[in-house]
Amino acid sequence: MSKNILRTKLCDMLGIEYPIILAGMGSRGKATPSKLVAAVSNAGGLGVTGGSGMEPEEIRKRIREIRGLTDKPFGVDLLLPASMADVQENWDTLMEKIGRENPEHVSFMKKLMKDLSLPEVQVERRSVMSRDFIRRQVEVCLEEKVPVFAAGLGDPSWMIPDAHAQGIKIMGLVGSVRNAVRQVKAGVDIVIAQGYEAGGHTGRIATMVLVPQVADAVNPVPVVAAGGIADGRGLAASLALGAVGVWCGTAFLVAQECEIYPVQKKQILEGRSEDFIVTRAYTGKTARDYKNEVIEAWERSGLQALPMPLQGILFQSLVESAEKFGRPELINNPAGQVAGMLKEQKPARQIIEEMIQEAVEVLRRFRREVTIAGR
Ligand SMILES: Cc1cc2nc3c(=O)[nH]c(=O)nc-3n(C[C@H](O)[C@H](O)[C@H](O)COP(=O)(O)O)c2cc1C
């Protein structure tokens, strides 16, 4: 059988074969490991690694690791949240602050861990996402001249001139038309319009509604569709909505090369769409996660989430204890509604080839089954 060709303007812009991008997913490095990023790029898509939360030198190591596995283009995704730009404290001072100002939250967490039989652990101190930390993360991407940089949140305008001078293409992820216009003003080359059904941090507007509005608002800047896309039908639909490609997260969480916990893959493969709900539990920002016991307890508590990064710090002890004592089902499992249609693990190459094959069939079927008249 001859090879399928499905090219759009995105392929020419990024130097890739197929308009499919592995979404940068910052899940402690497990969701987008180097071997998955490279597998997607080697299969003709664009692999993007999620670097958010990673120490700058860890990001450099990843970039070099990916370069060792592929000579194709790839990207790095970071969160540049405006609201955290002035956090200057370190982990311990923020923990003390939570203890002082939010005793109810601390009691909730203590009781929850006791109810779940999770022992308290000494939390590993990490860098807090301060302005300086994010700058250092970005500097590594510039120094390493990554082919593509994706800003998952916030305003990338301050780093775009330097990135463009290095030949780096910039993508900005948005969940609303207003933010799409802002990102284009900031100078991004490509806008990713991410709908409500997406896994991870998400906005309030569905992909079907968001993508055409963003495409109209930022024309001629190319738009990539995200949220709820996992097969060739979703890819073909995205092109119909005015996108030039797709940015897929959940679909690749069940790739063989993805390193999330097996129980998390099982939650995705066996879960229904309605099992993936929006919560502020683990991070303080609205995120779509698999509904586990921890989220149920948080939602029942009626407590207001602390702002980012405080809520994440509050939950860190639970996450690390669950990791240490073999209870990964209690760790947050960000994934989208599209999980409901994912039924088996496959190599990343197969996921991409099947998506392309199916999209080609859908587009051909239209020619056969849809009667079109007029000029
Ligand atoms: C496990 C997980 C982690 C994510 N982490 C990030 C991140 O660090 N930065 C980011 O821009 N988007 C992140 N996202 C959102 C994805 O980039 C993407 O927009 C989303 O997965 C698309 O929707 P889908 O899951 O329905 O394919 C994450 C999503 C998931 C599922």
The CATH superfamily title of the domain at 9-88 and 127-261 and 337-369: Aldolase class I
Q: Which compounds are bound in this model?
A: flavin mononucleotide
Strands of the largest sheet, in order across it? Answer: 1-9-8-6-5-4-3-2
Multimeric state: single chain
The share of residues in helices is 40-55%
- Cα-atom Rg, whole angstroms? 20 Å
| CATH level 1 name of the domain at 9-88 and 127-261 and 337-369 | Alpha Beta
Distance from N terminus to C terminus (CA atoms, Å) equals 35 Å
Question: Any guess at the CATH architecture of the domain at 9-88 and 127-261 and 337-369?
Answer: Alpha-Beta Barrel
Number of strands: 11
Order of H and E elements: HEHEHEHHHEHEHEEHEHEHHEEHHH
Report low-confidence residues grouped into runs of 5 or more: none
The average pLDDT score comes to 95
Which geometry do the CA atoms define? globular
Describe the largest sheet: 8 strands, parallel
Number of helices: 15
